[in-house]
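Changelog-adjacent note: as of this version, every example in the card shows the full chain rather than a window. The one below runs 166 residues end to end.
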Amino acid sequence: MAVVPHVGQPPLPNVSLRPGAVAVPALASQIRPALVLPERETRELIAQARLHDVGNGGHFAAGPAGIQVWSGPFDGPGGTRGSAVHLGSVDWSYNTPVKHYATIYRAMVTADGVARGETTASILARVLALTGLSVDGTRLTMPMPPARDPFRQRSRWPTAVTDPGS
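Full-length structure tokens:
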């Protein structure tokens, strides 16, 4: 990765990403229609993911954008991942469609997850199973679009036509 300094600034040393720092999806599925978790289920799911956190001997890591699924607890020095492998994640939009709801819109599996037999459906099912929820839960369905705003329609009154020759 090349880094270009701003004009007039000293050159920067080479910058590189740490290997494994960014999860690269091998499989990703958009969940359509989206799976909506009401406030109670969202709070319970986050609480259960934290209870079964990789730092507490579990397989999950909850964050503001979703829940990651790992092969096991973080057993490295100082709480680092050690031998744990990131298998996949379930991504959501929090506070959507209303406050404290979560709209699950994607499940992702890493290459390590695929190698261990995970699918987007199995990752989603593992996360939802934390609270006994089913993959066939409440879906967000979009109603028919509303009728066009009558005030934005073209005017019903004839417009004046000018004769360019006059």
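Structural remarks: Residues 1-6, 140-147 have pLDDT under 50 and may be disordered.
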